[in-house]
Amino acid sequence: MWFTRKAAPTSPTYTAASMPSGSAATAAASRTSRSSSKPVRPAGSLLFCALAAAAAVRAQAPPPDATSDLEGTAWQLVSFSDHELAPAERSHYTLLFASHGQLSARIDCNRGSGSWSSPGTGQLSFGEMATTRATCAPGSLYDQIIKHWTSVRSYAIRDGHLFLTLAGATYVYEPLPVTQDADSPKGKAPAGK
What does the H/E/C string look like for the chain? Predict the structure, then answer.
């Protein structure tokens, strides 16, 4: 059982038996447990412990990678290696990696938005994606891409292409061509990659 005593946060810790006589906490202690030797801690020290624990947990959490070489880039799908599939129209399968972990996508006849994070070099994870649910034409890769979306675990940029890897398969993207349309994402391959 914990007792509080009105004092400065730097006050000493007492046991019920060693508290100065005449204090309200001593009276409460004698009513509840005459032989208790549990420490009585001031409320300020409990608050300090809680804040210190929260700071330690926060310090251990990896910060989002705000400097990822994916941020600000736009890509279009070239192929999917598992089944050697290629889209009929590459520009119908695009990804735009925006700042603050936001992502926009076009997946055939649907549009979507979601989140991405890169906690370390070559590591990548996607959050769930919210999409429109139009029925695309036969041969669409929409269902396959949505099925694999959260299974992507890593990426690499080689020879100007983006490789998104999941268990046993890889999606290959190329930079989205730069357009003059103000509403379209601008293609940008990372410099020096």
Answer: CCCCCCCCCCCCCEEHHHCCCCCHHHHHHHHHCCCCCCEECCHHHHHHHHHHHHHHHHHHCCCCCCCCCCCCEEEEEEEECCCCECCCCHHHEEEEECHHHEEEEEECCEEEEEEEECCCCCECEECCCEECCCCCCCCCCHHHHHHHHHHCCEEEEECCEEEEEECCEEEEEEECCCCCCCCCCCCCCCCCC
From first to last of the 193 residues of the chain, give the pLDDT tens digit.
444 445 444 544 544 444 455 544 444 444 444 444 555 445 554 444 444 444 443 333 334 444 589 999 999 999 997 557 899 999 999 999 999 999 999 999 999 999 999 999 999 999 999 999 999 999 999 999 999 999 999 999 999 999 999 988 999 999 998 664 444 444 544 444 4
The number of folded domains in the chain is 2
- Say which CATH number the domain at 153 has: 2.40.128.270
Answer whether 0.90 is exceeded by the pTM.
Answer: no
Q: Which domain holds residue 150?
A: 73-175
